[in-house]
Specification:
115 residues; alpha+beta; 4-stranded antiparallel sheet; two-stranded antiparallel ribbon; 6 strands; binds zinc ion
């Protein structure tokens, strides 16, 4: 019996798109087409959460160190999670969908933090 937390593909519970595993070692936890996720993880990849409801993409935030983060909100319990946007060569997150979630101020207000 192998119950390792493998990086496996899945079928999207919202739009039924077939989702392939990420190739860069990260866990794929949301659909690249509709960006919906499932509330299944306590720690990314562990699938230990019993909620298992759909999580709606509510916004995209820019984190100075981590890059673009997708914020999901659970439709059942209201929990919010941040997930890194998937930049996968085979099946990247849909750019048009991401742009609709990006607030205007982020694009205008360029960060002045030093690098
Ligand atoms: Zn989907
Ligand atoms: Zn939940």
């Amino acid at each position: 019996m192998s119950r390792s937390t493998e990086n496996t593909g899945f079928t999207c519970a919202y739009c039924a798109a077939p989702v392939t595993p990420l190739t860069n070692g990260s866990y794929r936890n949301h659909c690249p087409q509709c960006l919906y996720s499932l509330h299944v993880d306590l720690v990314p990849g562990d699938r230990a959460n019993s909620c298992r409801a759909l999580m709606r993409p509510v916004m995209v935030e820019h984190h100075p160190a981590k890059g673009y983060m997708l914020v999901h909100e659970c439709l059942t319990c209201g929990a919010r999670h941040r997930n890194r946007v998937a930049q996968d060569s085979r099946q990247p997150d849909d750019l048009d969908q991401l742009l609709t979630l990006l607030p205007e101020p982020i694009r205008k207000n360029r960060s002045t933090h030093g690098r």
